[in-house]
Amino acid sequence: MSTLRYLAIDPERLDAMRRRGADEFGNPWKPRAAEGWEPLRCCLRTAGEGEDVALISYSPWPVPWDTPWGEAGPVFVCFRRRAGYQTPGEYPPDLRGRFSLLNPFDQTGARAYRHR
Q1: Beta-sheet strand order (sheet of 32-33)
Q2: pTM assigned to the model
Q3: Helices (DSSP H) in the chain: which residue ranges?
Q4: Which residues of 31-56 are buried (b: 16+ CB within 10 A; e: fewer)?
Q5: 28, β-bridge pairs
Q6: pLDDT in tens, 35-57
């Protein structure tokens, strides 16, 4: 059985989007004030009220996709770069107790159904 790892979005990939001023699907990278409930995929924590965040379209696979598992969806990230998530072997403490969907994938990129 494989070990679960909780991975935030690659900070280098987000930096490239910030430089372009748009996500990988061409949607503008613009700040919005957080209400304080938004799950941040760049650092796996909940945004603080008033914090600058961005809502982007994101896919864990490089665009264009070369997998039938390819999908994209809206995610919140910090508008400016932060430290990220440093303990991938531990479920993010700030996300405990939330109603969230964990959508795991194995090392080949296939959905890991037994972990859902």
Answers
A1: 32-33, 52-58, 73-78, 39-40, 45-46
A2: 0.84
A3: 11-20
A4: eeebeeebebbbbbbbbeeebebbbb
A5: 22
A6: 999 999 999 999 999 999 999 99
